[in-house]
């Protein structure tokens, strides 16, 4: 996608909150996506007896593996950075397939969570999928606080994948 405003995607709620989107195209943007990944996953490592440096190295390796996996298995997906008022605040990986729209990953930096941006964007994605006559799915970590948001918005677990659930709306 070359568009950079939510209005161009039809994402009206996101636009009302001042969100914008741009494709991840260079190493700096990949590194920011890695920082978003680490911000979500680091709380899962709290109980490990590792140093902060060991945890950071582990998270970097995990991000690189995940990023390579996503790129290989979802070559037609849109890899977007989310910005608010010229500050990068998160990432959205989205694949619009023939039979469904799939959120590969959506994550916000900690200071931007719980302020309505995720809810607005998810509702916009739900509207987009509905207009296309397709379900919207996402793989959601069961330990994530976001799983409550998905459930509140009407997503249902379609498959238990151990540490995560494949959730689908409607």
* Large-scale geometry: globular
Span of the ends, CA to CA: 25 Å
CATH class: Alpha Beta
Q: Please, what is the CATH homologous superfamily?
A: Gcn5-related N-acetyltransferase (GNAT)
Helix fraction bin: 40-55%
CATH fold call: Aminopeptidase
* Overall pLDDT score: 90
Tally of helical segments: 6
> Could you give the order of the helices and strands?
HHEHHEEEHEHEE
Q: Show unreliable segments.
A: none
| CATH architectural grouping | 3-Layer(aba) Sandwich
The largest beta-sheet arranges its strands as: 1-2-3-4-5-7-6
Number of strands: 7
The largest sheet is:
7 strands, mixed
> What portion of residues belong to β-strands?
25-35%
How does this structure look, described?
Strands 1-2-3-4-5-7-6 form a seven-stranded mixed β-sheet, with helices on both faces. Helix 3 (27-41) crosses helix 4 (52-73). The protein has helices at 6-9, 12-16, 27-41, 52-73, 117-131, 146-152; strands at 19-23, 78-84, 87-96, 101-108, 136-141, 156-160, 164-169. The chain has 170 residues and is α+β, with helices and mostly antiparallel strands. It has one domain (6-169): Gcn5-related N-acetyltransferase (GNAT) (Aminopeptidase). The radius of gyration is 16 Å and the shape is globular. Helix 5 links the parallel strand 4 (101-108) and strand 5 (136-141).
């Amino acid at each position: 996608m070359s568009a950079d405003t939510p209005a161009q995607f039809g994402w009206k709620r996101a636009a009302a909150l001042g969100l914008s989107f741009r494709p991840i195209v260079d190493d700096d943007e990949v590194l920011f996506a890695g920082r978003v990944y680490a911000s979500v996953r680091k709380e899962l490592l709290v109980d490990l007896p590792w140093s902060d440096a060991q945890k950071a190295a582990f998270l970097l390796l995990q991000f690189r593996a995940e990023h390579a996996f996503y790129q290989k298995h979802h070559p037609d997906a849109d890899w977007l950075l989310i910005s608010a008022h010229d500050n990068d605040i998160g990432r959205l990986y989205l694949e619009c397939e023939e039979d469904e729209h799939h959120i590969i990953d959506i994550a916000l930096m900690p200071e931007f969570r719980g302020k309505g941006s995720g809810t607005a964007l998810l509702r916009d994605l739900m509207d987009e999928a509905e207009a296309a006559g397709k379900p919207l799915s996402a793989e959601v970590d069961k330990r994530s606080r976001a799983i409550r948001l998905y459930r509140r918005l009407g997503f249902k677990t379609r498959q238990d994948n151990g540490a995560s659930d494949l959730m689908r709306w409607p």
